[in-house]
């Protein structure tokens, strides 16, 4: 490949109909219709899989994605993606190329399903298995239809896998190199056995594998129907058109950044060994004209345990960050990265290498890269800046035995997996959603309580935790769960030392969260009601993680860091309550310019206390939010005086 | 509780200086290094002033990762 010149390319909307047809094998209208029909294909596959899946992480979390990519002659463009997990979608273009090239594209046959789960070849962690089906026309591969789905277990030392404590790829789980799971529509028994002999809960995996085969066949059939209807030339042209659209739109978005070099960083508190080592993700964003170079130099060497991310995850994070900050409407195809070069020293926290850089909690470190890019660009974007999110899924993973001796397991349901976003120029941040780095569902409380011996006691917004701003950051989420049997827990919050919910355009950051256990009463019974927030209740707690006052055990940014893996496994007795509090979202704009009526509404709704209204917003609210919420009012004279003194 | 905490050391990507002038801006600051972009890994020579790519050659499929299986 020789010199690539991006500037000077004619805009898609300006080229003539003849030029369009020459480039994309169809007229504009046909290309647009075909692209939309392919979008339908991946959504239909997704809906069908969601309906059929047995695994709770598929059924309740939407922990999968579907894509359509072009053939080798086009260099495998990923043209169409489902509306689902960005950490999957961002890696799937390169994962497909790496898997197909290593296996040998010429060895693929109609009816094959090629799989790979190696994080270093394809990104993510070993639980996420990529399934690839080649689509043939007249004996030639014209496309690939693909699914990537989280398997509830992929072996390794921790059931379910979600743990920061694993020290190498051997403890992490089974690594599957590019190999066939179906050959000419016949199952490859040795591959199935390799998986089932090295993983837990195969009875859940097997029906899901069968369902995925049917969805891949559905995708293949619908693609062939579209080719029959519109012609192969129009189909192949549409794949290129789809990625060119992303590339052009991202190029326009990048132009919003002034030329310059911008640095940012974000901290990961510790790995799963002990609290003695912190990890910093550092980024330099160099922008000139329509090009961007994102240099990860300055990022810490890879961690000793399974909190690392691979370079495909780093590339995904860069695409997510620039899309979120600059133009959320850029279609997330392989064309997103056309004007972006990632400079990535190997062996870092976000470019880890085997065997000693395992990647189980990869989205936490790649999420820190997103935060570092936010820190780099927010100051230059001014009003277009975006507040940071809650920064970590604070993942909970546990298991135990019911009274009848059967095993229960709960993964990513009962920690601080969901929380707030930061504010933007458009308004306040949402208070209960997913990380910028994810795009998944929130499992229903009824499902969680049905599947495990747990009672969801509390799932609400914590007061005074939205980063103050003209537009307020989303409030931190506090979740209390009561565990009814003996239980073994792994808990994984990573961003409690520095705020993840950074402010934008003069807004202030949200505070950081933490995790605690509240033990049962002396006679072993459960607390008589909700666990509250009093000094006495915290004094009786067992801190797990976060910056806490050593005496009161309450949140204290100047306090002592408590390490989430100070015990390799947290064992609790029946009727213990787990509390997970997330970080708050970042505010946007000067909080002393927030409309007093909005602060009043926040006090009524208990997002902000009367004290917080005065301290953080310079708004004096009079009345009692608990006993007479509708009687609250703003003291306008006192407010004017307070804001003037600021 | 004592808290003796270090930061895992920073890594850096080397950029090898290359003789020549940027055809776009005339700068003599050309450098060679690998980048990861649309299409995978590329070994590039880029102008450090304006980021113009003077050359882009396809790099190794898996970047810095080497597979023993390739030695079979
Ligand atoms: Zn130049």
Automatic annotation (TrEMBL), chain A:
Q: What is this protein identified as?
A: N-methylhydantoinase
Q: Where is the Hydantoinase B/oxoprolinase domain?
A: 27-591
Top-rank taxon: Bacteria
InterPro entries assigned = Hydantoinase_B (IPR003692), Oxoprolinase-like (IPR045079)
What's one Pfam family here?
Hydantoinase_B
GO CC annotations on file: cytosol
Q: Name one GO molecular function term.
A: 5-oxoprolinase (ATP-hydrolyzing) activity
Q: Which organism is it from?
A: Sinomonas humi
GO terms for biological process? glutathione metabolic process
């Amino acid at each position: 490949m020789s010199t690539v010149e991006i500037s000077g390319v004619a805009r898609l909307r300006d080229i003539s109909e003849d030029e369009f047809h020459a480039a994309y094998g169809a007229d504009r209208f046909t290309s647009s219709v075909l692209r939309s029909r392919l979008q339908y294909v991946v959504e239909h596959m997704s809906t069908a899989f969601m309906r059929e899946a047995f695994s709770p992480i598929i059924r309740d979390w939407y922990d999968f994605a579907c894509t359509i990519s072009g053939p080798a002659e086009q260099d495998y463009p990923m043209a169409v993606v489902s509306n689902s997990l960005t950490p999957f979608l961002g890696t799937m273009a390169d994962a497909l190329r790496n898997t197909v090239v290593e296996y040998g594209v010429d060895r693929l046959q109609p009816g094959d399903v090629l799989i790979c789960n190696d994080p270093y070849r394809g990104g993510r962690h070993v639980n996420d298995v990529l399934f690839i089906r080649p689509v043939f026309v007249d004996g030639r591969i014209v496309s690939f239809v693909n699914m990537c789905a989280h398997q509830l277990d992929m072996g390794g030392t921790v059931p379910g896998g979600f743990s920061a404590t694993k020290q190498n790829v051997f403890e992490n789980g089974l690594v599957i190199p590019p190999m066939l799971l179906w050959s000419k529509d016949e199952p490859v028994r040795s591959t199935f056995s390799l998986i089932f002999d090295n993983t837990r809960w195969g009875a859940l995996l097997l029906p899901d594998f069968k369902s995925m085969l049917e969805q891949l066949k559905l995708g293949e059939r619908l693609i062939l129907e579209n080719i029959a209807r519109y012609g192969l030339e129009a189909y192949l042209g549409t794949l290129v058109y789809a990625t060119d659209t992303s590339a052009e739109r991202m190029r326009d978005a990048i132009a919003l950044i002034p030329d310059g070099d911008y640095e940012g960083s974000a901290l990961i508190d510790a790995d799963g060994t002990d609290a003695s080592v912190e990890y910093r993700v550092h980024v330099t964003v160099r922008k000139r004209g329509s090009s961007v170079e994102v240099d990860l130099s300055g990022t810490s060497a890879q961690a000793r345990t399974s909190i690392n991310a691979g370079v495909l995850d780093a590339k995904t994070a860069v695409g997510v960050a620039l899309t979120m900050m600059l133009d959320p409407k850029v279609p997330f195809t392989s064309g997103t990265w056309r004007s972006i070069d990632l400079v990535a020293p190997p062996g870092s926290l976000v470019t880890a290498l085997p065997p000693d850089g395992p990647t189980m909690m990869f989205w936490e470190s790649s999420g820190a890269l997103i935060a570092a890019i936010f820190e780099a660009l927010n100051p230059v974007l001014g009003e277009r800046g975006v507040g940071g999110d809650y920064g970590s899924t604070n993942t909970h993973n546990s298991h135990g035995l019911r009274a009848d001796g059967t095993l229960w397991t709960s993964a990513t349901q009962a920690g601080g997996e969901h929380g707030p976003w930061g504010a933007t120029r458009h308004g306040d941040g949402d208070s209960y959603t997913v990380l910028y780095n994810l795009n998944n569902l929130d499992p229903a409380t009824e499902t969680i309580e049905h599947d495990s011996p747990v009672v969801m006691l509390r799932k609400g917004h914590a007061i005074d935790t939205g980063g103050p701003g003209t537009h307020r950051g989303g409030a931190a989420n506090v979740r209390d769960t009561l565990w009814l049997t003996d239980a073994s827990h792994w808990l994984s919050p990573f961003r409690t030392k520095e705020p993840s919910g950074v402010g934008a355009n003069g807004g202030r950051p949200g505070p950081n969260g933490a995790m605690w256990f509240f033990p049962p009463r002396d006679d072993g019974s459960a607390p008589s009601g909700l666990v509250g927030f009093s000094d006495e209740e915290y004094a009786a707690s067992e801190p797990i993680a976060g910056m806490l006052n050593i005496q009161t055990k309450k949140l204290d940014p100047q306090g002592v860091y408590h390490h989430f893996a100070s015990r390799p496994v947290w064992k609790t007795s029946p009727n213990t309550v787990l509390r997970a509090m997330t970080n708050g979202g970042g505010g946007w704009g000067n909080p002393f310019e927030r409309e007093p009526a909005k602060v009043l509404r926040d006090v009524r709704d208990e997002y902000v206390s009367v004290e917080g209204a005065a301290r953080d917003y310079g708004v004096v609210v009079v009345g009692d939010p608990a006993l007479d919420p509708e009687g609250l009012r703003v003291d306008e004279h006192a407010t004017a005086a307070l804001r003037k003194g600021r | 509780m004592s808290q003796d905490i270090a930061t895992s050391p920073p890594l850096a990507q080397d950029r090898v200086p290359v003789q020549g002038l940027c055809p776009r801006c005339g700068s003599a600051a050309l450098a060679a290094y690998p980048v990861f972009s649309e299409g995978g890994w590329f070994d590039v020579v880029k102008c450090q002033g304006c980021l113009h790519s003077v050359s882009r050659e396809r790099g190794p499929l898996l970047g810095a990762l080497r597979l023993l299986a390739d030695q079979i």
